[in-house]
Amino acid sequence: MYEVINQISRWAIPVMLLVIPLIAFIKKVPVFETFVEGAEAGFSTAIKTIPFLTAMLVAVSIFRASGAMELLASWLGPVLSVIGIPADILPHAVMRPLSGGAALGIATEIIKTHGPDSFIGRLVSTMQGSSDTTFYVLTLYFGSVGIRKYRYAVASGLAADFTTLIASILICNVMF
Questions:
Q1: Where is the Nucleoside transporter/FeoB GTPase Gate domain (predicted)?
Q2: Which of 96, 93, 126, 124 has the alpha carbon at shortest distance from 110?
Q3: Cα Rg, the chain, nearest whole Å
Q4: CB count, 10 Å around CB of 128?
Q5: Given 96, 106, 121, 151, which is the most exposed site by the fewest CB atoms within 10 A?
Q6: DSSP string computed for 49-65
Q7: How far are the Cα atoms of 8, 88, 102, 174 from residue 55, in angstroms, in the given order?
């Protein structure tokens, strides 16, 4: 079974790169022109997102460099330990909604410290894979397309982040 999945994953993209243009050619879609139009639209979208991306990266850098994240972790750590949440994961839980790259860096440091097969290493890996970067998505994607009223998106995103945090903790406690 593993070999079948391996072969499917190996050939999926080359087959799509052959089949999609072939179908477009059969349907008389101007493939090259359509590709160029899409690339042009993608380029202009990328240019529009640069200011939002820069603002988000600066804000995350200030948050980490100012020591605010460590201060928050030191305040909440004792309370979380009482209810069974390791204080070591708090910086990752705080950073994940802000920046995927920063959260990955924190996860890497946690795994280096505790080991990949430790409970905390598995927990932070589960958290990294099951949550999203709520504020990054709101800042970059919503901002680049001009959405200004995203109050409910913030609440929904943060509720999803909290839910995945709790689910990760519960699942890891059961599984490991």
A1: 47-147
A2: 124
A3: 21
A4: 19
A5: 151
A6: HHHHHHHHHHHHHHHHH
A7: 41, 28, 15, 40
